[in-house]
Amino acid sequence: MASPLPRRAPHKRLPVSSSLVIHNVVVAGRRTSVRLEPVMWEALQEIARQRETNINQLVTEIDRRRDSSSLTAAIRVFIVDFYRSAAAAQGDRAADLRVRLTS
């Protein structure tokens, strides 16, 4: 039995360019690829500079501490935790300053 509706031509999908950037890193002596957003790579580089280390050593540290999540997820969580801690410390310093000024 023929369908009463005409068939549509297949929809051609245009390839979507990814916003992720792939970098090779050496984790515990093994070379691997990691895909992260450019802002995450920038944050990771900034953290490595602040800790006076390099990306490979920092990612190796993250890999050693991670649970069963993927390395990429562990890196993102590490970055968020790093900046959360920094923001909390800055908030504590601001609160201490307000207390000293009002005392």
The spatial strand order of the largest sheet comes to 1-2
* The CATH superfamily title: protein bp1543
The number of helices is 3
State mean pLDDT (0 to 100 scale).
86
Q: Let me know the largest β-sheet.
A: 2 strands, antiparallel
Q: Evaluate the radius of gyration.
A: 23 Å
Give the amount of beta strand, in percent: 5-15%
Following the backbone from N to C, one meets helices and strands in this order, namely EEHHH
User: What is the CATH topology classification name?
Assistant: Ribbon-helix-helix fold
CATH class: Mainly Alpha
Return residue spans where pLDDT drops below 50 for at least 5 consecutive residues.
Answer: none
Give the proportion of residues in helices. Answer: 40-55%
Structure notes:
The chain has 103 residues and is α+β, with helices and mostly antiparallel strands. It has one domain (21-102): Ribbon-helix-helix fold, CATH 1.10.3990. It has helices at residues 38-50, 55-65, 71-102; strands at residues 21-27, 30-36. Strands 1-2 form a two-stranded antiparallel sheet. A hairpin with a 2-residue loop joins strand 1 (21-27) and strand 2. The chain is flat, with a radius of gyration of 23 Å. It starts with 20 loop residues before the first strand and ends with a helix. 7% of the residues are buried. The mean pLDDT is 86.
